[in-house]
Amino acid sequence: MVFDGMRATKDFNGYVVFLEEDHYLSPDFLYMTEKLIALKEEKCTDCDFINLGMYTAVKGVSSLTHRVSVGIWNAGKNNMGFGINRKTWEQIKSCKEHFCTYDDYNWDWSINSMGQSCLQRNLKVLVVKAPRIFHIGNCGVHHRKECNERKDAQKVEQLLQSRRNTLFPESLHLDMGLNPGPSRKKVKPYGGWGDIRDRNLCLSFVDNALRTTL
């Protein structure tokens, strides 16, 4: 919809960052996004994504706030606060049949499979080593029963306050070498996406966006 279905952005070739309602952003999020885009365009033109978040522990990363690395897209690590441009979107769109019919209700694992099967390559991501996006949504089906999102947000605020002198780095340092991450063996899909109605709805989003502009 952003790239093909809205008048304001249908000719936009820059980057769009995917955020969810339970993501907490650091004060230098936009600043780091622009820095990361510039670095990608200069040093990693074949990277498919930029990534500003992670789920791993973030304590003791003050010395890493200016460092970034290149890795292979991992659905379990790189699905929070990632950005793409139109070039990457066109590649995803070219694999719409695979993406929309892959029997996995998780869109991120569908992207994983799309890269391996349809594009026949591993997708690459340029990622910050100190996150600028934090997940505070610890309630719900996949998380602990006892949760308090306000407390989780306060923890992030305290962390950012303690790290305030390391935010807004003047320049970024790219650690050389590709971080392969976990094994990129093909994984069995989780299921939940076998209903033809779901698959057709997914395909219709792409097709209708091309015909309708809001």
TrEMBL record:
It is a single-pass type II membrane protein. GO terms for molecular function: alpha-1,6-mannosylglycoprotein 2-beta-N-acetylglucosaminyltransferase activity; metal ion binding. Disulfide bonds join 44-47, 95-118, 100-202, 139-147. One of its GO terms (biological process) is protein N-linked glycosylation. Its cofactor is Mn(2+). Mn(2+) binds at residues 22, 135. InterPro entries: GlcNAc_II, Nucleotide-diphossugar_trans. This is Alpha-1,6-mannosyl-glycoprotein 2-beta-N-acetylglucosaminyltransferase. It comes from Geodia barretti (Barrett's horny sponge).
